[in-house]
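Working notes for the structural subgroup meeting. M.R. asked for a predicted model of this chain before we commit to crystallization trials. I am recording the input and output together here so anyone reviewing the notebook later can reproduce the run.

Input as submitted:
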Amino acid sequence: QVQLVESGGGLVQAGGSLRLSCAASGRTFSIYYLGWYRQAPGKGRENVARINWSVGSTYYADSVKGRFTISRDKANNTMYLQMNSLKPEDTAVYYCAADTTGRLQYPYWGQGTQVTVSS
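Returned structure, recorded in token form:
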């Protein structure tokens, strides 16, 4: 089992920045990837970014490339999402998820944190 707890969401004006954190606990040695997903009202879930827990390689959705940066602190079992140049369309609930399968499948999810960007 892996437990995930997100923090750092909030309300920010367009053009502003936020940093999300995802603290992992439990069987963290079984993690292959940690990912950030988001879901806006009435929309499907989008994989915003992911990071290979071991080697640190990253992936970004086109919608956030150049504005968001994913990183991890293995010593503290924490992942971050630095979000800059935020846009109203970034408004969503952001979730972190853990892949313990190695096949980009995510059986473990956090409870989510709300990010609201005002125009």
